[in-house]
Amino acid sequence: xxxxxxxxxxxxxxxxxxxxxxxxxxxxxxxxxxxxxxxxxxxxxxxxxxxxxxxxxxxxxxxxxxxxxxxxxxxxxxxxxxxxxxxxxxxxxxxxxxxxxxxxxxxxxxxxxxxxxxxxxxxxxxxxxxxxxxxxxxxxxxxxxxxxxxxxxxxxxxxxxxxxxxxxxxxxxxxxxxxxxxxxxxxxxxxxxxxxxxxxxxxxxxxxxxxxxxxxxxxxxxxxxxxxxxxxxxxxxxxxxxxxxxxxxxxxxxxxxxxxxxxxxxxxxxxxxx
Amino acid sequence: xxxxxxxxxxxxxxxxxxxxxxxxxxxxxxxxxxxxxxxxxxxxxxxxxxxxxxxxxxxxxxxxxxxxxxxxxxxxxxxxxxxxxxxxxxxxxxxxxxxxxxxxxxxxxxxxxxxxxxxxxxxxxxxxxxxxxxxxxxxxxxxxxxxxxxxxxxxxxxxxxxxxxxxxxxxxxxxxxxxxxxxxxxxxxxxxxxxxxxxxxxxxxxxxxxxxxxxxxxxxxxxxxxxxxxxxxxxxxxxxxxxxxxxxxxxxxxxxxxxxxxxxxxxxxxxxxxxxxxxxxxxxxxxxxxxxxxxxxxxxxxxxxxxxxxxxxxxxxxxxxxxxxxxxxxxxxxxxxxxxxxxxxxxx
Lengths: 274, 348
Ligand SMILES: Nc1ncnc2c1ncn2[C@@H]1O[C@H](COP(=O)(O)OP(=O)(O)OP(=O)(O)O)[C@@H](O)[C@H]1O
Ligand SMILES: [Mg+2]
Fold this sequence. Notes:
The complex is a heterodimer of chains A (274) and B (348).
Chain A: H1 2-6, H2 8-29, E1 31-34, E2 37-40, H3 43-48, H4 51-83, H5 87-102, H6 105-116, H7 121-128, H8 140-165, H9 168-176, H10 181-210, H11 213-219, H12 226-237, H13 240-264
Antiparallel strand pairs in A: 1-2
Chain B: E1 4-15, E2 18-29, E3 33-37, H1 44-52, E4 59-64, E5 67-68, E6 79-82, H2 94-104, H3 109-122, H4 138-150, E7 156-160, H5 168-185, E8 188-193, H6 196-202, E9 205-210, E10 213-218, H7 220-225, H8 230-235, E11 240-248, E12 251-254, E13 257-260, E14 270-276, E15 281-284, E16 291-300, E17 305-311, E18 314-320, E19 329-334, E20 340-343
Parallel strand pairs in B: 3-8, 3-9, 6-7, 7-8
Antiparallel strand pairs in B: 1-2, 1-4, 4-5, 9-10, 11-12, 11-14, 12-13, 14-20, 15-19, 16-17, 16-19, 17-18
Helix pairs in contact in B: 2-3, 2-4, 3-4
């Protein structure tokens, strides 16, 4: 069959860049280095469940969850405004919203550092008002702020695209059957937007739980997250085996949570971005 | 006494420049089956949306049982709508769709279940409570949409081309079912269609519309037999429309001959439009008739034949159960009461 041949380059690409690296990660995670060379072992995984690492893991999940909830709370209303009826302003709004995303991720995070610093813009402003400066940078809140700021678009866009696809006639039908604005939202708009919410949640939670840049820059290295842990193992400690094991655990957890979430999304309408 | 449940008074509606409705005045009587009929874009949906409250007129008033409801939002109106594309909630099953309106009214659960059960029986969908919407056929979805509206026991049911998406056979079945339901439940139906046969067979009253204006209001028989103008005549059933001259009362000239007719009240020698239904023309031998012509086409239409007869510069469309072969010379006989004379509309 011809179509099989057409997908060949793609298969090669998958093999080189996805499948082989994954196999390598798996291989490293299941081996340890001994004086007699590499031997098979579950040691790396056992190590992961030691209290210090478990604490890092729980902190990562906790901060990522908080960020996801905040993103949802901010992102849903934003998506509703964007999907609303003001056709003239809409494109401008979407544009304004997307522009910061064109900027480099690191640059954006560094920008927040200069804003939050002890002598940063915010504190300068506070002192100008005669208020005492605040400790803003290198706090958990700063890390959450960085996550929310960077990942909010991933929440807004899928919700926005689902909301935009909702048939206006359904809203009219609900009004026709006696539903006021609030009831229409509760019984029609929100349930129909759930697929978008689900993919928004996955798309924020996943990068948030694995980030290492945000926690390093805005957390000042005080709040080691799972991403930092992996980074350290590979770059500083040089224990590729343990690093691989953590990566594997994260991968399994992410896959599981995606599986659970996609169950709710029974319509398979997707969030538009998948 | 028949009472007006809805009254549109001088209603006009513009959409950025396009006049969708121009000064509409319309009574809808309680318990009648009223049909808005007209070509695409004539303002039928707009009229319905104004009655439903989805659109506010630029000027004019909507009265409901004599009360002005022009700016009352839809959810406060005792009117329900069956939408053109059904607009069923895809995230709810059949039961929840139908119970939607009742739950908003905070009705007792048992009562809701009972009402949904009864209405499903009425629309012939017993046992479909837990079916998902997208597992239903078009006709079934259509009936769920009707049930969802009817279960609220509205005083007026608005239907926007509810049968448009169905095939011919199903459409005819549903026409009968709808008409039965309307009579049994005693609900006022305002029905929109651009299918004249549907309008004729179902309605008590037909409102013929064109470009945002009402052309004629009347019973199906009135509208078919006594169309007020050539537009109505042409839109309701097929027609031969030719220009003629009203020589004097009861005497009209067209197609190079003069005919007796039943109309009067025109000026002498007034130019008029003459409308003749294809089934009102009899084919006779050339000698028997004032109008002769040659058959140029014959089509078999099931119950009857349709013939095109060329007479000088006029082509006549004729429907008859017998046929004359193509090329034969025939005479056309038109009786006085088959001739409908219409005032020539000067504009356009
Ligand atoms: N929301 C709108 N915005 C702009 N113009 C509109 C809108 N709704 C209707 N119109 C215009 O108003 C006129 C009447 O439209 P309407 O939908 O009432 O026609 P209709 O008789 O229902 O036609 P159809 O049989 O095609 O459904 C049309 O010219 C249409 O283009
Ligand atoms: Mg319409």
